[in-house]
Design goal:
Blueprint (H helix, E strand, L loop, with lengths): L1 H27 L4 H10 L2
């Protein structure tokens, strides 16, 4: 049970990190606004 909690916590941190990275990439990359909106809205 402790292992499950650790894995869940790691996944949560990884997801947050991934979201930040994706967000940073989108702010840097010159994507058209509509495509950026579509991709961001499709994220959970």
């Amino acid at each position: 049970m402790i292992l499950v909690a650790i894995v869940a916590e790691l996944m949560e941190e990884y997801t947050v990190l991934l979201c930040r990275l994706v967000e940073h990439l989108f702010h840097e990359a010159p994507f058209p606004r509509r495509i950026r909106f579509l991709i961001l809205s499709s994220l959970p």
